[in-house]
Each structure stands twice: as structure tokens, then as C-alpha cells.
């Protein structure tokens, strides 16, 4: 079962283990994009467990890797997760991450990106 499926089913410890194995495997074979996806999944799982500091660290790592790879869409997704993770302790930082994510998404016109952009905009407005 994938980490995403495990997380969706409330199997958070199993999801963390799955994401950790995936990150290690993809790092070993040199697939930075999938490694970063695993870090993002770990961040999402840590947020679900109310482990904001760990979530932020994982999302930061994912965003940095996506940036290195020149993948602005996934970088924006990771920044959205990072903003959510730091929002309560660093509202200004969260706003900055969301604003950067919106800039990164500006070049995309598909429906999925529009939904992501709309969600980020709602979160930005709610954050003040």
C-alpha cells in the first residue's frame, strides 16, 4: 500500500515508514523528483499527526529539491504544505510561502492548478 493510501486510512506510522523507504530508495537510484515527493508525503503525514516542526522540515526539503530540479509546480505544492505547517508559529512566513507558490503557479492554466491556486488564495485571505 502506498504512503498516500496509508495516510488516507489513518495508518500514519505505516505511512511514515513507507515514505521513508521511498525517499531512501529514490535517493539511492538518483530520482530526485520522487525522493522530493516522498519528503512532501512525510510532511503531510507529520502535519496530520500535529508534528508541525517535522512537517515544516520535510516540506522545506521537498521544496528545495523541486527548486533544484526546476519543477515549479511541485515546488509550489511543497510550499503550500510548508505554509500550512508554519502558519500558527509564523503567520508572516506562511504568507510569504503562499505568495511564492502563487508566483510559481502563474504559468499554468490547467484546472488542477486553478484549484490549487484558488485554495492557496483562500488560505492567504484567511491568514490575513
Outline the structure in words:
This protein has one domain: Tetratricopeptide repeat domain (Serine Threonine Protein Phosphatase 5, Tetratricopeptide repeat, Alpha Horseshoe), CATH 1.25.40. Helix content is 83%, strand content 0%. It contains 7 helices and no strands.
Concise account of the structure shown:
By secondary structure, the chain is mainly alpha-helical. The chain has helices at 3-8, 12-29, 32-48, 52-69, 72-86, 91-105, 111-127.
Keywords:
128 residues, mainly alpha, Serine Threonine Protein Phosphatase 5, Tetratricopeptide repeat, 7 helices, 83% helix
The gross shape turns out to be: globular
CATH superfamily: Tetratricopeptide repeat domain
Using only C-alpha atoms, the radius of gyration works out to 14 Å
* Derived structural class: mainly alpha
Strand content: under 5%
Average pLDDT for all residues: 96
Unreliable segments of 5+ consecutive residues: none
> Secondary-structure element order, as H and E?
HHHHHHH
- Named at the architecture level, the CATH assignment is Alpha Horseshoe
Amino acid at each position: 500500500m502506498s504512503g498516500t493510501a496509508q495516510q488516507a486510512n489513518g495508518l500514519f506510522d505505516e505511512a511514515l515508514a513507507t515514505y521513508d523507504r521511498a525517499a531512501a530508495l529514490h535517493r539511492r537510484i538518483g530520482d530526485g523528483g520522487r525522493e522530493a515527493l516522498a519528503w512532501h508525503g512525510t510532511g503531510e503525514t507529520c502535519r496530520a499527526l500535529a508534528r508541525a516542526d517535522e512537517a515544516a522540515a520535510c516540506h522545506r526539503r521537498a521544496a528545495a529539491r523541486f527548486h533544484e530540479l526546476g519543477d515549479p509546480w511541485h515546488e509550489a505544492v511543497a510550499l503550500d504544505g510548508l505554509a500550512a505547517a508554519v502558519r500558527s508559529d509564523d503567520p508572516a512566513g506562511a504568507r510569504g510561502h503562499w505568495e511564492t507558490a502563487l508566483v510559481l503557479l502563474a504559468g499554468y492554466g490547467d484546472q488542477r492548478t486553478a484549484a490549487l491556486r484558488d485554495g492557496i488564495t483562500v488560505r492567504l485571505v484567511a491568514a490575513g
